[in-house]
Amino acid sequence: MNVQKMTDLALQGQRVLIREDLNVPIKNASVSSDARLRAALPTIQAAADAGARVMLMSHLGRPTEGEPNDEFSLAPVADHLGQLLGRTVRLVDDYLGSNLELNDGDVVLLENVRFNSGEKKDDEGLSKHYAALCDIFVMDAFGTAHRAQASTHGVARFAPTACAGPLLANELEALEKALAHPQRPMTAIVGGSKVSTKLDVLNALSEKCDQLIVGGGIANTFIAAAGYNVGKSLYEADLIDQAKALMAKVAIPVPTDVVVATEFSESADAVIKPVDQVADNEMILDIGPQTAANLAELLKDAGTILWNGPVGVFEIDQFGKGTEVIAQAIADSQAFSIAGGGDTLAAIDKYAIAERVSYISTGGGAFLEYVEGKTLPAVAALEAAASGA
Ligand code: 3PG
Ligand code: MG
């Protein structure tokens, strides 16, 4: 990756515009999970400590452009960031076309970029407005690097200098370590509800890993492809051929036992069964204990582990054992482990293993697109800026 890095630039007295992904869940006007804010903190702190005049910008949610709306205001994020930084972070909502009065070391947050018309379409005029605010544009929002929008992509074309922030650089480095030069054997775990939404990532990983563990609704399609009845389980009959093709390319262990229920609810009775005994009125909601133990054994010997998606309905405890055993095995493993995606992060929190995963990505969609081998537009824009294109 040939890009300029924020850590190589002199920031003293410079107007530094930093695009972060501060798109965090908000409940009752306060931040309910601040993982992304904490991930951005070292970048913000480093710029302020270097004497930069720091302007942060981010999106929050998906508001209608051109219609500022309190529901999507970054005000709770400004408050929360202020607490984390131990200083006031002023929220600025009237920043387009204005000259912000800032002192060296100041940190302000610009209101939701998705209130600005043209943001999502990567509008050139809007991109130039952003660029005019700064001497240096820092792209640090890995979680939004798969979007070619004015605040992630267009601005990099027009800013006097455009560079990668430390968080973005670290994320790309960790992903490259896991994918370009993996320690073998490499095991990937892909869970989630549908094969169709993860087909690209499954295909890409089938080329790279030594074993591919599938979970959730995705596993059900593989169980059906192996010839077993899946009862009322969520699965995709039209993707059985794709599942078979994947199984011909890479080792995909099919569960030998499963946890089933006749209803999907918090109070459902969970029953453990061999995989060949699922009845027509049952749903598979987790892998069974024998399968989980076998997979944990496999993860013990892995050199690299990539994790995206739980292997069962872990939000309901009686269907969470499989995900818990996998999480524990990842935590116990000596492998370089990398995890990404909203549900995966929730499982990591639930089973309290964050400290024992080598790298936790802040990206969901961006993480998957990188793993699929796609070019992230925001990174491409930094490369173009570095080459003077
Ligand atoms: C995310 O949370 O997935 C990122 O912040 C990107 O948000 P978006 O999917 O609304 O572009
Ligand atoms: Mg998304």
Verbal overview:
The protein has 389 residues and is of the alpha/beta class. The chain has helices at residues 35-49, 75-85, 124-132, 150-158, 166-179, 195-208, 216-225, 240-249, 289-300, 321-332, 342-350, 365-371, 377-386, and strands at residues 15-19, 26-27, 30-31, 53-57, 90-92, 107-110, 136-139, 161-164, 186-190, 211-214, 257-261, 271-274, 283-287, 304-308, 336-339, 359-360. The strands form four sheets. Strands 5-6-4-1-7-8 form a six-stranded parallel β-sheet, sandwiched between helices. Strands 10-9-14-15-16 form a five-stranded parallel β-sheet, with helices on both faces. The relative contact order is 0.13. The mean pLDDT is 96. Residues 21, 23, 62, 143-144, 147, 364-365 line the site of 3-phosphoglyceric acid.
Per-chain topology:
Elements: E1 15-19, E2 26-27, E3 30-31, H1 35-49, E4 53-57, H2 75-85, E5 90-92, E6 107-110, H3 124-132, E7 136-139, H4 150-158, E8 161-164, H5 166-179, E9 186-190, H6 195-208, E10 211-214, H7 216-225, H8 240-249, E11 257-261, E12 271-274, E13 283-287, H9 289-300, E14 304-308, H10 321-332, E15 336-339, H11 342-350, E16 359-360, H12 365-371, H13 377-386
Helix pairs in contact: 1-2, 3-4, 4-13, 7-8, 9-10
Bound molecules: 3-phosphoglyceric acid and magnesium ion.
